[in-house]
Amino acid sequence: MNIPNDPVMLLSFVNTQLRDNFPSLDEFCSSFGVDKSDIEDKLKKLDYVYDKDNNRFV
Fold this sequence. Notes:
Helix content is about 55%, strand content about 5%. The model has no long low-confidence stretch (mean pLDDT about 95). The chain has helices at about 5-20, 25-30, 35-45; strands spanning about 50, 55.
């Protein structure tokens, strides 16, 4: 399954997946075969960073 390329859509997709299906960003990335730093870099452009304690980008 492809993940969205648009940063806003990516944010929504990743946070939904983290909330519903994955206990961590690492497990999400492993399952989708994506590089964690790529996700973090794209979302950092929107001023979102991964909050490990809440398992979501804020």
